[in-house]
UniProtKB/TrEMBL annotation:
Residues 38-268 form the NADP-dependent oxidoreductase domain. The record marks K83 as: Lowers pKa of active site Tyr. This is 1,5-anhydro-D-fructose reductase. GO terms for molecular function: oxidoreductase activity. It comes from Pseudolycoriella hygida. The lineage of its organism: Eukaryota, Metazoa, Ecdysozoa, Arthropoda, Hexapoda. The gene is AKR1E2_5.
Length: 304
């Protein structure tokens, strides 16, 4: 079954779909429904599945297995991303092997298309971890390795000693948090930008400019926000589970936002990160003051 989602060529000459399915949601909230979401997404034409060891890996894996074994899709037509996000690996890179094997076991896979280093610890203490991840590429356990939430300084530092360059950097990006310098650096290094939180935790859905554009193009605000990322050459991985939202989010490849409207969207930048964690209160962070330690504190929530 072919997909209507276009692809982007990465710096290792492999292709990644421009729109992916995110299984970020943590255990309890999506357990029992994420598997159906994965199966619906495959039926609709999604091929990129962004996963994490967040308690629902196995349900995602079972759904992938079902769709591969019933012949709906071939494994090689899927792009599956796993995450290395246990902070312990920064102190003991030998733990990486166990982490990736656990992910492969949960996902019912023999390889990952990409394995992403989530949230660098400290300022520059990730190089040994990266070198250990490179061995996974040497051993065909993963086809590529990538980054999540890396800043400019960390990327520059990584490039001084990497044998395998990261294929993508995944981070929070939307018109209220444009991350202009980071996007430019990634592009200058042929590092694909993968955007999560494209709706700014829903804050953007109330923005007048976005809503006016939605009316003008006869699209929803979500579609405008996704199209905005695609036109910048970014890959987007919004969280959506219900079939109608998954379908709606795919309907962004047959219209163009004009140059002047792209400029208008770019002017909305507030350099603010809007992060909603249902278990915590609503948090607004000034992006320039966002230290890695602060970010790690947020993510440590998931390690409990
Ligand atoms: N690598 C990383 O560090 C990483 C990766 C991903 C996410 N995150 C974190 O997870 C949090 C959530 O991220 P996110 O990207 O999901 O946030 P988001 O894009 O702001 O919002 C996801 C929500 O939008 C809804 N939605 C999706 N498509 C829709 C549509 N077409 N119409 C109406 N509603 C729609 C979903 O509803 P349904 O659930 O009902 O479908 C879901 O509740 C962020 O705060 C981010 O920090 C981190």
């Amino acid at each position: 079954m072919s997909s209507k989602i276009p692809y982007k060529t990465l710096n290792n000459n492999t292709k990644i779909p421009l729109l992916g399915f995110s299984s970020w949601g943590w255990g309890d909230t999506v357990q029992g429904i994420i598997g159906q979401g994965v199966k619906d997404a495959i039926d609709l034409g999604y091929r990129y599945f962004d996963t994490a060891p967040n308690g629902i890996e196995q349900e995602v894996g079972d759904a992938l297995y079902e769709k591969i074994t019933d012949g709906t899709v071939n494994r090689e037509d899927l792009y599956i991303v796993g995450k290395l996000w246990d902070p312990k690996v920064f102190h003991d890179p030998a733990l990486i092997k166990d982490a990736v094997l656990s992910t492969l076991r949960n996902l019912n896979l023999t390889y990952l298309d990409s394995y992403i280093l989530q949230c660098p610890e400290g300022d520059l203490q990730f190089v040994d971890t990266w070198h250990e991840m490179e061995k996974l590429v040497d051993n065909f356990v993963v086809k590529s390795i990538g980054l999540s939430n890396f800043n400019e300084k960390q990327i520059d530092h990584l490039y001084t000693s990497a044998r395998y360059l990261p294929v993508t950097n995944q981070f929070d990006c939307n018109p209220y948090l444009m991350q202009v310098e980071l996007c430019e650096l990634c592009k200058s290094k042929s590092l694909a930008v993968t955007v999560y939180n494209p709706f700014g935790s829903s804050t953007l859905l109330e923005d007048a400019t976005i809503n006016n554009l939605a009316q003008k193009y006869r699209k929803t605000a979500e579609q405008i926000l996704l199209r905005y990322q695609i036109q910048q050459g970014h890959v987007a991985i919004p969280i959506a589970i219900s079939k109608n939202k998954l379908k709606e989010n795919m309907d962004i490849f047959k219209f163009d936002i004009s140059k002047s409207d792209m400029v208008a969207l770019g002017k909305l930048d507030r350099n603010k990160q809007y992060t909603s964690f249902s278990a915590l209160s609503y948090v607004i962070i000034d992006a320039k003051s966002l230290s890695i330690d602060k970010l790690n504190n947020f993510f440590s929530f998931f390690h409990k």
